[in-house]
Design a protein that fits this description.
The protein is built from 3 helices and 3 strands; from the N terminus they run αβααββ. It is an alpha+beta fold. A 3-stranded antiparallel β-sheet has the order 1-3-2. α1 packs across α3.
Amino acid sequence: MNKHQKVLEHLKEYGSITSWEAIEKYSATRLASIIFNLRKKYDIDTIMCEFTDRYGNTSQYALYKFKGEL
């Protein structure tokens, strides 16, 4: 099973994925590229989430939500 398939299965099972989850679970360091390719067949939303790191800096990360097939 390649990384695209692993990410797709994760999306179908859990409904969403972040870059950190993709790196930890599947060693997929280019999640945005994988999502770009999956969007050719599947409806996937991007939700930008904001967080504050341990140094007090505000930043964002993408949460990809699976909505189904096109």
